[in-house]
């Protein structure tokens, strides 16, 4: 019984270090094996209890969508793309709402975000579409970093 619970404690420590739910399920399964050992069940029943608890926990987590992969839109998420929120200067816009801007030591193709009137001045990068910067006027973005 103590071996099961010791392994469960190690798995729980690993869970706290990594932040995944899978090691938590393993820790619960090992604790289930420890409970079966405490009830004087044979080794095969202890292993069965361990596996059953792990599988039951996995099914519950999948049904509640806790393990569902969260999609992140890297094109407009500042946590993923460090260019989001940076300031660039636009001298003039062309008729098709695009411009060439100097950013990070090179010229970039930029386009104006929908719903904004084209005018020169400082703009904030709000999205990246391929190699094209999507810009909004600085005063319309609510400030920048």
Describe this structure in words.
There is one protein chain. This protein folds into two domains: 2-63, no CATH class; 87-140, OB fold (Dihydrolipoamide Acetyltransferase, E2P) (Beta Barrel). The mean pLDDT is 87. The radius of gyration is 27 Å and the shape is rod-shaped. It has helices at 2-18, 21-38, 43-63; strands spanning 87-90, 98-103, 106-112, 121-129, 132-137. Helix 1 runs antiparallel to helix 2 (21-38) and helix 2 runs antiparallel to helix 3 (43-63). 39% of the residues lie in helices and 22% in strands. The protein is of the alpha+beta class and 145 residues long. A five-stranded mixed beta sheet has the order 1-4-5-3-2, with no helix packed on it. It is built from three helices and five strands.
Quick structural overview:
Helix content is 39%, strand content 22%.
- Shape estimate: rod-shaped
Provide the number of structural domains.
2
Order of helices and strands: HHHEEEEE
**Secondary-structure-derived class:** alpha+beta
Sheet with the most strands, sense and barrel status: 5 strands, mixed
- The number of strands is 5
Please indicate the percent range of residues in DSSP E strands (runs of 2 or more). Answer: 15-25%
Which consecutive residue ranges, at least 5 long each, have pLDDT under 50?
none
How far apart are the first and last residues' alpha carbons, in Å?
Answer: 56 Å
In angstroms, what is the radius of gyration? Answer: 27 Å
The neighbouring-strand order within the major sheet is 1-4-5-3-2
What is the residue-averaged pLDDT? 87
Instruction: Provide a count of the helices.
Output: 3
Helix content: 25-40%
């Amino acid at each position: 019984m103590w071996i099961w619970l010791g392994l469960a404690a190690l798995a729980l420590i690993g869970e706290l270090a990594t932040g995944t739910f899978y090691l938590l399920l393993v820790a619960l399964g090992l604790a289930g094996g420890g409970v079966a050992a405490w009830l004087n069940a044979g080794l095969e029943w202890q292993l069965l209890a361990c596996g059953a608890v792990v599988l039951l926990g996995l099914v519950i987590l999948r049904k509640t969508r806790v393990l569902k992969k969260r999609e992140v839109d890297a094109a407009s998420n500042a946590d993923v793309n460090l260019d989001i929120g940076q300031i660039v200067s636009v001298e003039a816009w062309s008729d098709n709402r695009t411009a060439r801007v100097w950013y990070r030591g090179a010229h970039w193709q930029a386009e104006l975000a929908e719903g904004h009137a084209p005018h020169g001045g400082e703009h904030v990068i709000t999205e990246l579409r391929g190699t094209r910067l999507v810009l909004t006027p600085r005063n319309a973005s609510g400030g920048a970093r």
